[in-house]
Each structure stands twice: as C-alpha cells, then as structure tokens.
Structures
1.
Amino acid sequence: MTVFDTHFDEMACLLYLDAQLEPAQANELRQHAASCAKCGALLHALEGEGQTLRSALIEADEPVPAHLFPRKMQTNSWPWIAVLGFAAAGAYTLWSTVFEPIQAQFVQAGFNQDNVMTMLMFSGAFWKGWDTMRGIAESLALVTLGILCLTLLRRRVRRSGAFAAVLGAIVLGMLAAPSGASAAEVRHGDPNYELPAGEVIHNDLIVAGDYVTIDGDVDGDLIAFTQALIVNGHVKGDVLGWAKEIRIVGSVDGNVRGGSETFQLEGTVARNITVWCGHVMLSPKSIVLGSVILGAGDAELNGAVAKDVMTYSSFARLNGITGGNTTARAGRVVIGAEEQARGTMKVEAHRPPSVDSGAKLASPLQFTEVKHGHDYDSAGYYWHQVLKWGASFLFGLAILLLMPAFFADVTHATRLYGTAGGVGFLVLVATPVLVLIMAVTIVGLGVSISLAFLYVVAIYAAQIFIGAWVGEKLLGAAAGTGAIAGRLALGLALLRILKQLPYAGPFIAAIALLWGLGAIGLAMYRRTRSTLAVA
Amino acid sequence: MTSTELTQTLEQVRGGSSEAWGELYREYAGAIFRFCRRVLPSKEDAEDATTEIFMKVRNRLDQFDSSRPFTAWLYTVASNHCWDMLRRRRIRQDLETPDVETMPLEHPDPSQLEQLLEQSTNEQVRAGLAKLSARARMALVLRYFSDMSYNEIADALGVRRAFVGVLLLRARHELREVLAAGKPKGERSGSGSRAAGAVAGEAL
C-alpha cells in the first residue's frame, strides 16, 4: 500500500471497499478517512463508481432472445393448425402448378408411369445403378446413425469402458456381417475398356475408362462413366451414361438415359430416350420404339420415333418420322422435308418455325410465340408483379404472425451479411446433395421429399426476410407487429422492383436469395443449438 | 429458486432428469446470456456462448463442489468459456500487459469523478464498457455483474490474485477516459482520470 504523506492512494481505497485489506490496514484506513476530507471524498467517489458500474451492468436493457427458451410444441393450439393448413395449401398449390403439369407433359410424351419420381428414380438403369451403390451408402448411414445414437446415449452411459465395449461390439458386428453379393460386373478401363465382339457379359456392367467401346453383348444394364461411350453391340437392359460423347450404333432393348456433350443415335432403342446434351443427333436410319425427351443446345431429329417427342433446345430440326405427338420448345425450330408427324405438333419458339413444303403434318401446326425478357408494355406484366408481391407479403405476414420469434431471429441474422451469404451458398448447394443421399439410403425417401419441400419453401422465403431488412433500413427498426408488417410490405415492393431491373435484376435476385437463405440457415442453426442445450 | 430447491434440482439433474435440467436451464439461462452479452462483442456471440456454456455445465456437473455456491461455479464456467472465445479470436489485444502491474495510476479528483458519474447514464456506461479492452471489460463484469471474489477472478482470468486489484483499478481508469471523451468539451471533467485527478498531487 502506498501512502502519499498522510493520505491513502486510490488502490488502497479500492482494496478497502472490496474488503481485500488486512483488518489492521482496513482499520487504519477507516480511521484516517473519518478525519480526512480528501480521502473520505475519494472513498465515497469510488464507492459511487462501483454502484454505477453494478447498476449499469445488471440493468436488463434488452430481452433475452425467446429462442433460448424453446417451448414444447402445443399440438392443439390454433397457430400450429393454421401452419399445417397453410402448408397443406402450399403443397397442393406447388403440386398442381409445378409438378402436375410436368408430369402431364411426361405422360403425353409416352412415359406412362403414374409417378414422376418413380419413373425418374426407380425405373430401369437409374435405379439399378444406384442400387449397387446403395449397399455402401446404407452401411455408411448405419454407421453414422449408430455413432450418433451412442454419442447421445453417452450422457447416460457414463462409464467409458462400457461405452467402448458397446462401440467395439457394433463395429465387430458390422465387419463380421456377410456382405451382399454384387449384382453387377464392375470394370475399370486401363485407360480404355473394350468389350470385344462375340463376348457376352451375363450381368449388369458398370464401367469407367477414357474410351469405352461395347462391341459384344451385355445381358443386363450398361452404366458408363467415360469420355466416349460407343455401343456397337447389343445391350439387353438400359444404357445409362455420363460421357463427353455417347454414340449408339448397335441396339438397346431398354431405355437410354444420360448426359453428354454430344449424343448420336444410329442404331435402335427399343424403349425411351431421355438425354441432356449439347448436341443431339438422331440419324436417318435410327429407330426409337418409345418416346424421346431431350434437353439440348442443338437437336437434329432425323430418325423414326414410334411415340412422342419432346424437346427443349435453342435450336431444333425436325426431319424424321414421329408416331405420337411432338412438342418443341426452342429458340428456333426448322421442320424439314422428311418430317412426318402423325400426331399433333406444338411449337413454342421466339419466331414461327420454318416449315418445308415437303413436310407431312397430320394436324395443323400449333405455334405459340415465346417473348424475350419482360413485356413492359403489357398491363398484365404489372398486374402479375403486383400479384407476386401480394403473395410474398401474405406469406411473410403468415410467418410473422405464426412464428414471430423465428421471424425476428431470421431478420436479425440478415445483419450478418458476409456470414449469411456464405451459409446461403452452402445451403443452396449442399441441400440437393443431401436430398439425393437421403433418397438412396435408409433415411428414406419420405424424409428426402420433406427436406426437398422445405428447401423450396426456404428459397421462396429468402426474399421475405431480405424484404423485412430493406423495410427496416428505410423506416428504422420497429417493435409492433403492425409496424414490422408495414416495413415488410415496403421492403418487398422495393425488392421486387429492383429484381425487375435490366441486367442488375438477376444479380440482385441471386444476392437476395443467398443472403436470405443463409439468414434462415443461421437462425435455424441457433434454434437447434438452443434446443439441444435445454433438452 | 431457493437453495434447498436448487440442491434438489441439481441432484435430479445428476440422476439424469431432463425435466430438472430444463428447470435449471430456465432459471439461469437469462443471467448467463446477460453475462455473455456484457463480455462478448455481439448478440450472436452471446447467444452461441450461452448454449455452449450450458452444454459444458451439463457435462461437468459432476465436477461441481456442492459446498460452493452454484452461481459462482456457473459464472466461473461462463467466464472461462468467454475468455477462451475472446482468446481464440485474438481480440484480446491486451493479453500481454507486462507493465500494467507497475503502471503508475494517476489519482482522480473525487468531485470531478462524481460529476462524471452523475452525467453518465447506464446506457453510456455500458457503451463505454464495450469500448474497453477485453481484459478490462471482463474484469469489471466479473466483479460488478457476477459478484465474483478476487480469487475467482484471478482463476477465471489466469492471473495472480495480487494483480486483480490493479486490473480492476486500471479498468476503471480506462472507463473514465472513455466516458470523459464522450462528453462535450464544456461538460468534460478533465480528460478522464488523468485530468480528473491530481488529488494526490494536491495532497503532496
């Protein structure tokens, strides 16, 4: 302790006030302060400072976030009934406006399965290929779930020895379990793979290599990952290929599906073709006994297709025989002299198709003009925008009224601009992958579809929270529901206008999407953590 | 929650009761959030820290010595966690303050100090605290929010007990500087503690 002549210093006074001095020293200081005005005043000032600090620190100046106290769901309360109602209505709207028309188009094109998902995922080679991977994925999922369960149980199983024994037993059990017999032949090219003419694979064939040439026969499906896939032989199942170039000269008894830079068919396909390619060419001697669905840069259809043709491309030349209906949506469509369309022909393009006089169309061509960009002169465009704004506002209002704490959390999270943007990008990219993984593992298709639905809803909801942020920036922070709703309406309107701007609009929309999606992700992450902490 | 109720709840939590844990959480989560809010730079950090602290508390409840006050132990866990967070982020610029122990502290003029405190609202004091170095802010929060003893503060901050008083006094001086800097010139009581002081000089 320092004493300046007869006075005590500030340190000594503080230690005295905090009861940190020895009794003798404390007594000395007390006696001195009682008779010394300066030291008494200093002691009093320091004590006051301590009280000020205490009062400022303890004062509850802001509420504790509601999500730190997660409540149990009240299943009978009206907000949740309303939420379920909204969700059901939303699901119905989504189904009737998005999925059903797509399904109708697929059915029209000859894919007569009742369910688009069944057709895409469980028919033919798509499913069989995944089925082979499923064993591995299932094992991984089982291990993951097992470890998760054990980690959760660990809180209860406190003895680490017992925990290790259980874990060890599970691992041993998994290792000892007999592995399922492989349902396919798996070949790796070195660097190329060739199945010579006369040789037969009596099974499905999964093959990877720089160049894959099939001159022989495959009794099952052919699944290939390669730069160039050339099928000169006979595949009795489906062909599923991802390649730079796919060329089928021989015959395929099943479907052909895949993606490539170029796709060329010179042989016969007994069922359907579904491909996404830069350039598609069906040569004049090619035959497809089913339907054709194409997503392509350029499509030249010169062969014979027994059922329907549906093409989405920037350029399409139709110059073959089509037994069913034809639907072409393209930048430019040319109908050549050899074209024989026995069903209806619908063309949606930027300009009327060029039709050769030699073309034989069973029914009059139905042309619909597709306009570039927004039609600013049309009153319908503005009405449409107002409707979209109204829909987004109502959706935002529903969230605000039914889940005010969540709304506040997400709006708050939008202030973390960089983090939200990064998380948004991750959510946008990673969720579809997660949906696919779930679909093929034991987690199940139901969970996968639910997640996909939530993903779509979150993408739509992203704009709501950015709108709320914009409104708050313009009019300042608000406390009441009415004021927040007003800011939301203004923010959403401004955001909609910005998104319609030429050139900058799409960028603004993309930024709003990533940012809003990230904010939703961050808020949900925080809520989950709070729930885990209190559970 | 009375001390008897608290003891019973803690026993139930140790026995694996989730309901008891929920009660304990609801009782103290608000206080811990406010503690974190005072110490950490943002609300988001405070929310994250609150949940993490309670996860730690649950896992370490076996280590709690029942003869000690529960809140003191809880704040020790919380302060250790927050201090680690600050250290990990390298925002603890005053981590190495070798001279602070021998740093001469000028003495305040009591009347000017009282004037400064009278002119400062709680909100201004909190805003001033937010501008302090992490260690100074932490020391003041541990002492005046959590009511921790010098021994507990020394443990939490990893310093010698004898150094805690210096740390607290230095933190008060920093705060006075910040508060004085925020006042209009006419209202300033000198430049914080320096010009507010000289009582010692006068005394000499």
Note: The mean pLDDT of chain A is 79.
2.
Amino acid sequence: MNTPIKRLDRDSSIFCLFLSVFIGIESYRLDLGRLSNPGPGFMPFCGAVLLAFFSLVVLIPAIKRETGAKQIGEGFTPQIRWNKFILPLIALFGYALSMERLGLSLTTLFFTAFLLKVIEPQKWVVVIFGSILATAGVYLLFKVFLRVPLPSGIFGI
Amino acid sequence: MDFSHSILFGFHVALQPINLFYCLCGVTIGTLVGVLPGLGPVATISLLLPIAFHANPVSFTILLAGIYYGAMYGGSTTSILVNIPGEAASVITCLDGYQMARQGKAGPALGISAFGSFIGGTAGVIGLMLLAPPLAKMALKFGPPEYVSLILLSLVILSYITRGSMAKALMMTAIGLILGCIGMDIMATVPRFTYGILVLQDGIGLVPVVMGLFGISEVLLNIEEGLTCQEVFKTAIKRLLPNLREWKDSIGSIFRGSVLGFFLGILPGGGAVVASFLSYALEKKVSKTPEKFGTGMIEGVAGPETANNAAASGAFIPMLTLGIPSNPVTAILLGALIMQGVQPGPLLLKQAPDIFWGVISSMYIGNVMLLILNLPLIGIWVKVLKVPYFILFPLIFLFCLIGVYSINSSVGDVVIMNIFGIVGYFMKKYDYEGAPLIVALVLGPMFETALRQSLSLSNGDFTIFFSRVISLGLMTATGLLLVLAAFGRKRLPSEVIS
C-alpha cells in the first residue's frame, strides 16, 4: 500500500500540469516557427508537451489510487515544520537583499547571529563568538585571500 | 603526439606544484565531504565553484575531479563506522561494512574499502586513458542529428536509472530543458521568459541552480530534521591491512567491481551509485553463500567500493570526449568549463591537451594520494563526524551566499539560488530527483541548437534521425529503454532494492 506517495504524486503532478500549460501558452506567443525553421518558442513548447504528458502519466494512477484511499480514510501531506523552514528562508533572502547596502561584514555578522540564536538556539557566548569568527573567516577567505570584489556597504566595511 | 608522449605530457602537467596542490586540496575536501553525512559531492562542488573559478582551467578541473572521486573514498568511512552513508554511492556498503565493524573487523573493512577504491579508481583511469582518444576521434564524425540522438539517449538513461519513478524523472528532465531556454535565443535573438528581468537576460546560471537545489535545500531539510552529531560505533580500529584470507575473498570482487563500475560510468546517465548497487547484486549472485550477505561479508564491501570509484573515473569519458555529462557532477564540471571558455568534446584533445591529459594523469596521482591519506587519517575522519551541525550549517549557507554572489557580483543570482533552494526542498519532500533537471539544464541549449540545425538541414523531416547509422543506433537504444520502462521492468535487481 503506497497511498502517501500517490497523494504526493497527485498534488505535484497537478502543479506541473498547470506549469506546462503556462509554458505552452508562453512558447506559442514566442512563435513556434515551422518544422523546417523552428522558432524561439519551439523548444520550450516541446518541453511543455513532455512535461504535460509525464505529469498525466503520474497523475492518472495517483487519482485512481486516491479514490480508493479516501474510502478507508487514508491521506498524506508532506510533513513540514514551518518555523524551521520559513525562518532560515527569511535569513537567506534578508542576506541577499541587504548585503549590498550593509556590506559583507555587517550582513554576515547579523546573519550568523540570527542562525545561531533563532534557528539552532545557542548560548549568547557561542552566538557572539561564533558570528564574529564566521565573519572574520569569510572576510579573510573571500576578500583578503581570494580578492573577490564584495560589497562594503554604507559603512564601508 | 603518440600515446606514451601524451601520458608523459599529462604527468608533466599534473606534477606541476600548483596542480599537485589543487589535486591534494580536491581529494582532501572530497574525502571530508564524503565523510560528512548530508553534504554530497554535488553540493560541495557547487559550493566550491566560485572559489575554483579563480584558478586556471587545468587546476580548476583537477580540483573538482579530485572532490568527486575523493568523496567516493570518504563515503565508505561513515557507512562502515556509523551505518550512515556519507554519500549515495556508499549506501550499499552499510549492509556488510557496518556488520564487519560490529564484529570487531572495522579495520579490514576500512582497509579493503580503501584498497578497493584505489584499484577501482586506477583501473578506471587506465581505461579512460585507453578509451577516450579513440572515442573522441569517432565523435568527430558526429553531426547535429547524432548529437540530438545522443543527448536524448543520455537523458533517457539518466531518468531510467534514477531512484524512484521514471515518469517523475522525465518530468524533471522536461523542466530542465525548459529552464535551459530562459534568456536570449541565440538563433533568433529574441528574449524568452525574461519578463524584463535583467538577471534572466543571459539565462539562468548553472551555479545558482545547483547551489540552490543541492546546497541550500539540503541544509533546509537537515535543519528541519534536526541533524545531530553522529554516534560512532565504539570499536578499536586496528589492523587496517586485510590479511591473506580477506584478500583472497576480495580480489575477485575487486576485479569484477573495476570492470562493471568503469563501463557503467561510461554510459551516459550511468554513475557511481548504480555501479555500487549492481556490483553488490553481482557479488551476491556469484557468491557460494549469498545468504550470508548482510552479515559482514568482505565481498559486499570490496565490490561496491571498487565499483563506485571505477565509475567515477569512467564518467569522465563521455564528458571529455563527447561533451555529454553522465551525471550531475560531470554536468557541473561541463558547465563550469564552458564558463571558463573551454568546450569539452571531441576537439578538446587537440585544443586543450593540457586539460585532457593533465586531468587524467592527476586522477592517477589523486588515487595514490587518497590511499596514503585515507588509511593513516581514518582517526581524524572519525573525529570530523563529531562536528556539531550548528557549526556546519551557517558556514554552508555563507559559502553558498557569498560564493554565488562573487561570480557576477549579482544579487539577482543570490535570489535565484534561494528560490531554487525552496524548489529543491519541495522536490525532496515530493520525491523528485534533482539530477535529471541539472543534466537537462546543461544539455538543453546544446540539444536545442542541434535539434533546430537538424530540422533545418532536413527541411523539417524527422527521418534525418533514423537515416544515419549512428543516430539510428542511438535512437533505437532510446526507444528500447522507453519500452522496457513502459512494461514496468524493475530498474535495479529486487534483492538490492529490498
């Protein structure tokens, strides 16, 4: 009995089916060209057709199985611990959006401190020393050793 | 240049101090990531790509290749001592390796795994030296239709052998092909799927996608699952050198593993993971006592560990000679080389013999380094296993963020990486593999150009793919594989799956 997998397959293949329809329409608008002279939309259109076809291959048996599963009250959605998923993402996007304004060092310091205190809570001593060490490490590696041009931000650090 | 001169030239390149340094760094980092569960060679190579870009193409390729085959060595340590594979190609080693450790034979298990890896890796390199040049010569005869058929076959094989549903793997292949279309269409100079976003004009970069799918997503999952420090099985690791009896039991497995692994590695779409699984199945089949497998049989360690290293070397053949990657690692290498201005393929031998022969020779040197490194340093690798994850994960994140930014100084690339981190997270949750997507993303532009050229050549007639001998052969193989898959034949022997 592999109902959980079938339920996952149903949801994901429906998503991919919608995606393929969107890509197909966009590719058509780009111009498919002719077979003897394929246009810019030809390849993505072929990709969309393939995606739609295999989404259906996954979806149809998943729906059949799902119908049976509902009768015996089974179901499954992937287990996601949202706080452990969303918080690192906030940190990651925050880093991306603030690194050019605040500069590499300051952003790295705040980012590491956030991860060590909020995501995997540690003692303040570990948080402070850990984030300072990590910042110094990446500064030395990327800016001093590899001479990568990284943003200094409004404070020039 | 004749064969012996080529090899000497290769060693001359590989023995340059800077290349030796990069080779040593590569195999050491590779072993380290092989040891650490939750960080495979694909993630590590993608993590180190931005740093490696600062090296010249020869040193760069030597470093990345070293990480790949180094990880094959390192992966066995955790399988044997902790019963947790450091990376996918060492999953099967857990079965008998861990049992050997429990019986107080951790030393011989680690020893035979290191020797087997060395012999397999060396056999693979020798095969690479012998097979690559004639294959490159043959590939010169390839035109656009042959390339279309070959890429199609590679993508289908990769989907066929991928764990789980083949239809889902083919969905990922289709998405990879579509992603490869984003950006300016070279033939019609029309922007596709860019929606006025500047960072998409040059297409979606391979590095942000790979780092997102394999780096960020992996850490997100590990944070969620609360990956903790591993408890190492407490046993005295003594007598790393296997005794005569153990050698006698293993030598056949090592030989079979070398041959099987090498040829599976060459196959477009083949790779170390499949090689290790099939080698285990083969050893069980030829054994007089198959029922004892899983209870600590040394053959169950020697065969797969040899096969995965031989496959790692073999996988370089299609990448170097045809410009077709056989797995995500070689796909990243191919993409990275192209970004460095080097085009792997049949002309690589003539245009960049230093890369071709230098990398091959460095692999031999790297295998010797690994043998020297692995046996005496096992104690250190065991200690590495105890590094808490709260130290590792911020560092991995920082490497991803700063690394991807450093390539083009673009915040857009960092955002793309984060988005693919989310995509990769859900792909894993919903049981979709990233490998077909990455390979299709790399091959997509090449496939599109060849397909459009072929159709223009034939005036839109699809029989061009069936009227040329090589193309017909490749298309027939693709068709057969699809038929096999459609009739539901199991892709790995049942005893291995169970």
Note: Residues 188 and 329 of chain B are 31 Å apart (CA to CA).
